[in-house]
Amino acid sequence: MEGQINVLKDLQSVMTKALASYKKSPKDRLTVEYIETRLELLENDWSLFKDTKSQLYKNYKLEDVIQKVADIYDTTEDTYITYKCAMKSALNKLKAKEAIVQQGSESNKMSRATSSLVKLPKISIPTFSGKYSEWTTFYDLFTSLVHNNPSLDNVQKMHYLKGHLTGEAEQLIRHTPITDANYNQCWLQLERRYANKKYLTNCILKRLFSQKRLLVESASGLKELLDTTTDCLSALTNLKIDVSTWDVIIIHIVTFQLDNETRKQWELSISTDSSNELPTLEQFKKFIEGRFRALEFIEPKKVHQGSNIAHAHSPKAMLATKTSSMLCEYCSESHKLCFCKKFANQSVDDRREFVAKNKICFNCLGSNHTIYDCKKQMSCRICKKRHHSLLHLNRDANTGMDSLVQDTATKSAVDNNSTDDSQIVACLSTGKIAKPSQVLLATALIKAESKTGQFMTVRALLDQGSQACFITEATVQLLRLKKSLVSGVITGLGNNRSTTAKYMVTLTIKSKIDDNFQLKINAYVLNKITSYLPEKSMNISSFDWIDSYGLSLADPNFNTPNRIDILLGADAYASIIKEGIVRSPTGTLIAQSTALGWILSGLVASSNDKEMQHLPKNISVNCAHFNEDNLLRFWEIEEQKSSKKILNPEEQRCEELYTKTKVRDDTGRYVVHLPFRNDDPACKGGSSRYIAEMRLKSLEKRLSKDTCLMGKYIGVINGYLQLGHLRPVKEGDDKKGQAVYLPHHAVVRDDKTNTKVRVVFNASEKNKKGMEQQKWNSNNQEIMKIIDQMKETEEEVEQTGPIKKENKNFEIKLDSTIKILGLTWNRNDDSFQYTANLAPLKTAPVTKRKVISDIARLFYPLGWLAPSVGLAKSFMLRLWLAGVSWDEALNKKVVQEWNTYREELTLLTKVRIPRWLRSKFKDKLELHGFSDTSKIAYSAVVYLRVPNAVDGVHVSLLVARTRVVPIKQVNIPRLELCGAVLLTRLLIETEHVLNSSREQVKVWTDSTVVLSWLNSHPSRWKTFATSSLVIR
């Protein structure tokens, strides 16, 4: 008996060790053959174990055998079952894989057998972005290729599913891990969301009913109309909607989208006396198919003429405007990628992956070029590196993406060449004429002021057909002018893009003929304005008639080709032109008098009869520059900026002088000393007397030619001497060259009835030190024009007494009300009231430009009209989000809403705000600030409480501010925090003005979340809250 029991124990040990060895076997060793061999050995050991046990039961007593063998049998049986189940499971999996491989190899054999006949394209599953119109196509393909594929497990299906979702659909299952159990749950979640028969039907019907009406006969238009209608009906049928009885309805709807001639032909084809039956949809389709086939046959085809002779006698004139229909690469809506809210809501990794995948520039988010070819001078506003701020890594996702989008939009509005910001329309005329002649355009030599104040001679083209001025980049560099960023596209005729304008400069030009004429202009910077003008040299003998008239030409070398540095448009042309025109003997050329000299323009005959002359280019530009940045500031979450200005020493002296000398006289007027510069060597000397004498001699020479003008001028000077405004100056009064002399000249105005001749002192004339005398006073304004009298002494200007200005310092009769910047002060009850200064609406359509112009007129100092103006700001934000262009007519609903708001503004005239706060100078004042938030705006208001007022405790509204909520949705606690920040800044400014102590300020808010944030250290919270709390 003991020997047989030892056999059982030995078999038990063998099976236990075999199980442990199997579990440690590497995966590459677990083959079908290996597992089947182990199963055979296991079965042999188990059979021997059971045979030995049976012999024990036969040869010995049952009680003794059970007592000694029971535990061994139970343990061995458990080991056997575990070992066998593990090997059977592994064996089944291996066999299943072999079957798939075998099936695949068979299919490969079949595909190789048929590959010689046809090569089918690879089937790709489209991505699904969450649009209901895309769901059916995605569902059918994904179900067929992935969902019902038995060779894919759920993990693989889940991986494919996540890889083919974008946008809203991807966000739905973004945070679901890729596991076997989660696939079915995610698929059902997508089905519940998008397999909505109601929404799918609405999308299809919307597409069916929104087809555009054909205005003219068009084969392509009829094809599109028929295909769209058939596609929509098929989609409705797939949704198990019976459309078989819709023939009459569909025909009625589609018929109204046909052009007039096609509709007429259709009505004639069905209007027969022999039939009163309703037409069928199939009959209608056959008619449309026959119609577009006929139109394809009879439509004239475009023929390109290759002969140059046919064009030689007809000049071409083309007009072009650039209309940009830019679509977002992410959501396909009509805006740029940097403005896309959906794109901004994605994670940084997703945004970078999308940009890289679609080959978009990492710097400006523009298409058609890479970052290496990007010409935009911009960088990340966070790290200042060369990439877009939306692609900045290592940034907290909860830092207020709306602020980043707004800053991005602001920069992009300047850096990108968008016709929404600035549209420049160019008109070009070119061609060939057989007549031997050449067109001469008006040119002039002018002096342009450089950054250092020196004037350099440049050549200008005068073009009355241009609404903007231009300057070449080379001229800007020569003058060292400061450039400012603008945005605009210049297009040529035939809608051919010419160039872009990215910069603008402001410069001063002077005439070479008249030193007194100067003009400040704004000019767009271009690399080149036009080619040399004139195109070819002209025979100067053709212009002998100019000498007979004694004309002083603005461009003496007008007949010699030379470059154009500046183009002066109509905005400058009106200031330059003068009266006087002289025509050439042939009548084809004219000379026009201008402040720059006489300019020549017109048709000039050529001596070469055989040469074909090209007409020069004529540029006509319409520039409308719109700055969206100012609008964006209404709804941006602002950053804290220091409002305290650091004064320079001169400004500090002005502040001290104002504080020390400010008094109020008996009439109620404020009197203060003028801020003169005490020591400015640049204004002394500089041979100002010599310059004044030269101007005087020039004036005398001019007056000697006109005795009438001389008499009037002498009369004006004698009048000044009699009134004491002037006195003769002797040589000894110069005070060693420290006196300053102002040159003067006569101005004649025949249209005036009283002062036809007057004296003008030129304080802008520079002395030899380069100093303008008008800069002698600190604020660079005209101090006094005529001095009546001086008291006590005439030695120093600082010791002068009261002065009177001729016709300037007279008393004003005050009315009962005084208007100041839109406010009205009622002197009777000492209160302020508001008068709505809105222009009456005309019959012209209401546009975004008119609405914003009206909003800009709502002047409300101290925020007294904050609740009313907040509605206007919200209305402005809605227009901006709707993407309405500046001159696009608003729809009737929006116009009605705006008209109602304008009418209600007139009710504000009934509101009166007391000017006196019921406080005395030594009264203790308390400031109480309140902040609140809604879904439209957040606001802050400060009240002044006077405990010891004349009539008891008195509370007055002091100041208020509102802000429109950001474009991206921000939760209410964060908006409450924005309101608290706005209130804090408002209180800081109010404290500074009132000089009140911090102990007398109380701040109130009903947000417990904000109070919790304020009572904790900023380091505990995320970036958005931290950046707002640091101003505490």
From TrEMBL:
This is SFRICE_041182. Pfam families: DUF1759, Peptidase_A17. InterPro entries: DUF1759, Retrotrans_Pao.
